[in-house]
What does this fold into?
Amino acid sequence: MGKYISLEVFRERVTPVKLANLADVPEEEIEVLVERILSRAEAVVESFASVRYALPLPQDEMVAEWTLRIAEYELYKRGPGSNVPAKIKESYGDTMERLADLAAGRLQLAGGALPASSSGRSVDVPGMERHFDPESMRFY
It folds into this structure.
């Protein structure tokens, strides 16, 4: 099952009738298909988030919403004729922009999301004097 959203949540979002029509597979294969779609959607979210955050991400409403939007777009893409409604395309595009913002550091996850690493951060080393502090740099 999904890390950020469940099959039930996705089925509720899309509705069972639309899910069956868009999946275009026998009913007994829908669950496997949706799990694959959710897994891919989570991988997309994590690929952007992993630039700044440790994985797996904590439970977060935005992470769940982004995962839902990507999965919904992927489901519509595989539907008959591959006609994705404009509102689904816009939602997907907005999600990709937000994920790019997340990766670039212009957007942060709420809650206790942990940074991916400490690279690029300054640290104080006991016993080492500071060569560049506000006082020594005041004329620069």
In short: The chain has one domain: 7-104.
